[in-house]
Design brief:
Chain B: Keywords: Signal, Transport. Chain B: It holds the Pfam family SBP_bac_1. The complex is a heterotrimer of chains A (about 300), B (about 450) and C (about 280). With about 300 residues, chain A is mostly helical. Chain A has 12 helices and 2 strands, in the order H-E-E-H-H-H-H-H-H-H-H-H-H-H. Chain A has one domain: MetI-like fold (Orthogonal Bundle). Chain A has a two-stranded antiparallel sheet. The relative contact order of chain A is 0.14. The mean pLDDT of chain A is about 85. Chain C has a domain of about 170 residues: MetI-like fold (Orthogonal Bundle). Chain C contains 14 helices and 2 strands; from the N terminus they run H-H-H-H-H-H-H-H-H-H-H-H-E-E-H-H. Chain C has a two-stranded antiparallel ribbon with strand order 1-2. In chain C, a hairpin with a 2-residue loop joins strand 1 and strand 2. Chain C is globular and about 70 Å long. The N terminus and C terminus of chain C are likely disordered. The chains are: A mainly alpha (about 300), B alpha/beta (about 450), C mainly alpha (about 280). Chains in contact: A-B, A-C, B-C. At the A-C interface, helix 1, helix 3, helix 4, helix 5 and helix 7 of A face helix 1, helix 4, helix 5, helix 6 and helix 7 of C.
């Protein structure tokens, strides 16, 4: 009895300490993210030209977003790029991490740096590079390669076909993010204590079995987290699309962030831009929740 | 042993963290104070340094040059020398971000005093109150006003006033590879009608080369020029520009079809409709390597392309092909380089003084010497290329339909002809809907 | 880690090595492209985008170097990165530890909020934040506003990642320490952090990549001043009205990348170190 009381006293103290621990981060996040976020929410119900007065217009910006086909398309494109690139990066990143985990030593060390390098490159350079690779006709490197291999029928105007342009962008985005996912999953793998492998090794399991039965289940929380984070990052990609297609041709690759920046900074309709942002936030929230639902499961302590 | 050292290290980090955590705002204030002190120190140090030349004069921030401009350093030095009493900060003008930075600064009431921006594109600032109206300053100084090339000041005028002052004139032109013209048996002509242009393209294509290279950002010039040329007379053109003629008009449709023809006949590098996505570097590479015979360019960039071509082949200059039915309707879209002043500047008079200097004979002569086509009557150049590149200046029409609304602007400048190529006439319906929306305002 | 079998190297392992080497070729491509382009002249670049330069042109580097006060820019970037990284790490560790181990109620909601607040593109956060820092008169103080943005924007992601790794530490370790009456900070520093070296280094690298390469916010906060201009703002300005000087720009990018790679390589060994520490049990 007495013991329990002491326990709950400890608990309350712990929670208070916890709140103190969170306070500094909260203050900084409040200034840099929450206030700007609230500002965007407020703005999404207003009309503002970037200078002069702000006037309240109610739901008008939201109605406009839902009734304008171009805006709807842009948001859908973003969701598409977000989901595909997240899948690509998670699958690729986890596979790379497994390979690195298997291959230690010098090759592993070099590979770690290089597999992470796309994540270090500025988006504009990747954009430039891939514009050259995916250029139409046989001037593009990819088409030239396909031609040389006798696969001329597969040649394609990658960046000006509704069927391919979003895929290409999503793949590049996913490939770039795979470096980050690799780092995270690899770190998670290293945190698995060796003792957990002992029985598997005694039974003479090969690496594939170990990967499937021990490593992957144990790093699932990390993968789940990486999934949500890349989804958010991929959704707001702006530079890559901008350098490669500028959202064109004919709005085929227009995404929500480009649309927002255009309506805000070019058309001076900051309220409308904020409304697009809010709708995107809700949509991404739904995507994350469903992603977490698919990958649900408990986490482990080692 | 190692563990112990590490835990000590971590504890010290934590101690720091505790400090940071214990009172974030207090700590921030302290840092603020500390930095403010060091700030004051450095400021004092700098002041003694600066005292030699600038005795606490007005502080202005200028965003007037880009590091890729050949005249950037010259102009900077000239301005510094001319205004020794001002304390000037020069920021690099960066194409992809200039609009965002200016608008962000203004929202927080920070002012960059003089900013390089295209007078033709002032539509982008409509309703924001960012650019200062310079009408009064211009009217008060006849010497300044009279120096400008006739009519050029019009490009910076909107219904909100004279918002930007041009320093250079700029308009589209074509640079051609004379060798490829010869090989294809095309006669080199300074001026071509649209039909002659298409016939030439056909011959070049038959000779195995691509006729035209144009980067995606500039494909819209075909449309914008056509929309200045396709009308029967100036009155009709003016009423179209004023938003009184629908985009579904037969002549607009014809013009668009002409342009679509050019793409659909594989005349544009690298062929097909896809050519609307050609990047600037790809287009340039195609021309320089002799894969494409005609390069769509602007006069301000002509010199630099001719330097890149070097002695690879002989270059020719031809005017933009004309869809006009009569000679007097052979109009060209004009773009002009220039400057604006942000309306929240603390030193409007000083900023205007700098602006006057920047658009005056002295600086413009220096820029002309570096190959720019400038908007000043008093500047002369003996450079043969200067005469060549500037010969179509009088064809530039001061207004365009893009100025009806920012949406129409955006659509015509960035989204056409791609939209028409891929979606056909519904592209014109979209434009028409935008025109009606603009008219309703 | 001794995963590989001691005597015979299995065929699968060799195949895997081959596959990794093949992948490396694809991954190294962008960096190699940037490096090769940086050694070309503009003429060569347009003449053949993919070809190797005829002679290695170091003048691009010299020019990128001379464009600005490269030393000052580098110094500014180092100061901003160091201050940002330390602040991010400390604040995120505290918050993540609290979320994971200090029995905060409704942690899931906090986590979801941390994720969702990142959805808005930076561009739409910039105007309000810039207004705030300008109202607080932080703009005249070098570095502070730049750092504030970086710290704030990196915190949510870092907190989520670190929280995830804190979750894997056995809670009986903590409870034992608590019963002993050891303070929370002490427990965290003494027991948990030594197990977290790998995750901490990972976050450090990820945040360094972001902070070191960020352009937009650095540019906006130094809009009106010469002080505190970072190396990205100082160097990545070869985009003009009529095109980009790619050889110069890529030279600048290589110069920006080198410190990143060096730091990564230096921090490599902590991945392995984290591993042995991870074996601690009770």
């Amino acid at each position: 009895m007495k013991n329990r009381k002491k326990q709950s006293g400890v608990n309350r103290k712990v929670v208070i300490a916890g709140l103190f621990f969170m306070l500094p981060a909260f203050v900084v996040i409040l200034i840099t993210i929450l206030i700007p976020l609230i500002w965007n929410i407020y703005l999404s119900f207003c009309d503002w030209k970037g200078g002069g007065s702000i006037s309240f217009v109610g739901m008008q910006n939201y109605i406009q977003s839902f009734t304008t086909a171009a805006t709807r398309d842009a948001i859908l494109h973003s969701v598409f790029i977000g989901i595909i690139s997240t899948l690509v990066s998670v699958v690729l990143g986890v596979l790379l991490a497994l390979a690195l985990y298997r291959i230690q030593g010098r090759l592993g060390g070099v590979a770690r740096v290089i597999f992470y390098s796309p994540s270090m490159m500025p988006m504009t350079v990747l954009g430039l590079l891939f514009t050259f690779i995916f250029a139409a006709s046989d001037k593009g490197l990819l088409n030239a390669l396909l031609g040389a291999m006798g696969l001329g029928t597969l040649q394609h105007a990658w960046l000006s076909d509704k069927g391919t342009v979003l895929w290409v962008i999503a793949m590049i985005q996913g490939w770039r993010a795979s470096g980050t996912i690799m780092m995270l999953s690899y770190t998670a793998m290293l945190n698995i204590p060796h003792s957990l492998f002992e029985s598997a090794e005694l039974e003479g399991c090969n690496f594939r079995k170990k990967a499937c039965h021990i490593i992957l289940p144990l790093i699932k929380p990390t993968v789940r987290l990486a999934l949500s984070m890349t989804l958010v990052w991929a959704f707001k990609t702006y530079d890559l699309v901008w350098t490669m297609t500028k959202g064109g041709p004919a709005n085929m690759s227009m995404t929500a962030p480009i649309m927002m920046i255009k309506t805000g900074f070019s058309y001076n309709q900051y309220g409308y831009a904020a409304a697009i942002g809010m709708i995107s936030t809700v949509l991404i929230g739904i995507c994350i929740l469903s992603g977490r639902f698919i990958l649900r499961g408990e986490s482990y302590e080692y | 042993m190692k563990k112990k050292a590490l835990s000590i290290l971590l504890c010290s980090i934590m101690a720091f963290g505790c400090l940071a955590g214990c009172g974030d705002s207090a700590q921030k204030k302290e840092t603020e104070k500390n930095t403010a002190e060091t700030e004051a120190e450095t400021a004092a140090k700098e002041e003694t340094e600066a005292a030699k030349t600038k005795a606490g004069g007005p502080e202005l921030t200028l965003m007037i040059t880009n590091s890729t401009d050949p005249w950037a350093e010259t102009v900077k030095e000239m301005v510094e020398k001319k205004f020794p009493d001002y304390s000037l900060t020069f920021k690099n003008w960066d194409e992809p971000t200039v609009e965002q930075t200016v608008k962000t600064a203004f929202a927080a009431d920070q002012a960059m005093d003089v900013v390089m921006y295209w007078p033709t594109y002032m539509k982008k600032f409509e309703g924001t109150g960012i650019p200062m109206d310079l009408t009064e300053y211009m009217e008060a100084d006849t010497e300044w006003k009279e120096g400008f090339t006739d009519g050029i000041l019009e490009v910076g005028k909107t219904k909100e006033g004279l918002l930007a002052i041009p320093n250079t004139t700029n308009y589209p032109m074509l640079q051609v590879n004379k060798k490829l013209f010869e090989d294809a048996g095309v006669e080199f002509k300074d001026v071509m009608t649209w039909d002659e242009f298409m016939a030439a393209c056909e011959k070049i294509k038959a000779s195995g080369k691509t006729p035209v290279a144009v980067q995606q950002e500039w494909a819209g010039w075909f449309v914008r020029n056509a929309l200045l040329q396709c009308w029967d007379n100036k009155e009709e053109l003016d009423s179209f520009i004023a938003g009184e003629v629908p985009f579904t008009d037969e002549r607009v449709k014809n013009a668009m079809d002409n342009i679509a023809d050019m793409y659909n006949s594989d005349y544009v590098y690298p062929g097909g409709k896809e050519a609307v996505t050609t990047s600037a570097d790809d287009a340039m590479a195609a021309f320089i390597n002799g894969d494409a015979a005609i390069f769509c360019n602007v006069v301000a960039n002509a010199q630099s392309v001719s330097e890149k071509v070097g002695d690879r082949f002989e270059l020719g200059v031809i005017s933009w092909p004309s869809m006009a039915k009569t000679d007097d309707m052979n109009n060209l879209l004009g773009s002009a380089g220039g400057y604006m002043i942000m309306s929240n500047t603390k030193y409007p008079d000083e900023a205007v003084e700098i602006l006057k200097y920047l658009t005056g004979t002295e600086v413009l002569q220096a820029m002309a010497d570096q190959g720019s086509i400038v908007a000043n009557k008093n500047v002369t150049s003996d450079d043969a290329n200067y005469q060549l590149y500037s010969r179509d200046a009088d064809k530039v029409y001061p207004d365009e339909v893009i100025n009806l609304s920012s949406e129409i602007f955006d659509n015509l400048v960035y989204n056409e002809p791609a939209n028409y190529l891929f979606n056909g006439e519904s592209a014109l319906d979209e434009l028409e809907a935008l025109r009606e929306a603009a008219a309703a305002k | 880690m001794n995963i590989k079998t001691k005597k015979k190297i299995p065929a699968g392992y060799i195949l895997l090595c081959l596959a990794v080497v093949l992948c490396l070729a694809v991954y190294i491509f962008p960096v190699a492209f940037a490096a090769i382009t940086s050694l070309k002249s503009t003429d060569e670049f347009y003449a053949s985008i993919w070809a190797l330069p005829k002679e290695f042109l170091v003048s691009n580097y010299a020019k990128a170097f001379s464009v600005g006060k490269i030393g000052t820019y580098m110094m500014n970037s180092v100061i901003i990165s160091a201050a940002s990284l330390v602040s991010i790490q400390v604040l995120a560790l505290l918050a993540a530890y609290a979320l994971s181990r200090l029995k905060i109620p409704h942690v899931e909601i906090f986590l979801m909020a941390l994720l969702l607040m990142q959805v808005l593109p930076t561009e739409s956060m910039i105007i309000p934040l810039y207004i705030i820092v300008s109202k607080l008169h932080l703009l005249n103080i070098p570095y502070i506003s730049t750092i504030l943005g970086y710290v704030g924007w990196s915190l949510p992601g870092t907190i989520i990642i670190l929280k995830n790794f804190f979750d894997t530490v056995p809670s009986d370790l903590l409870e034992a320490a608590r019963i002993d009456g050891s303070g929370e900070l002490n427990t965290m520093g003494r027991i948990i952090l030594p197990l977290m070296k790998g995750p901490m280094v990972t976050c450090l690298i990820m945040n360094f990549t972001y902070v070191w390469g960020e352009l937009m916010w650095a540019q906006v906060t130094t809009l009106l001043t010469d002080k505190g201009v970072t190396i990205t703002v100082g160097l990545l300005n070869f985009q003009g009205q009529y095109g980009t000087n790619w050889p110069l720009l890529t030279a600048a990018i290589v110069m920006i990348l080198v410190p990143l790679i060096v730091i990564f390589v230096v921090l490599q060994k902590y991945f392995v170190a984290g591993l042995t520490a991870g074996g601690v049990k009770g």
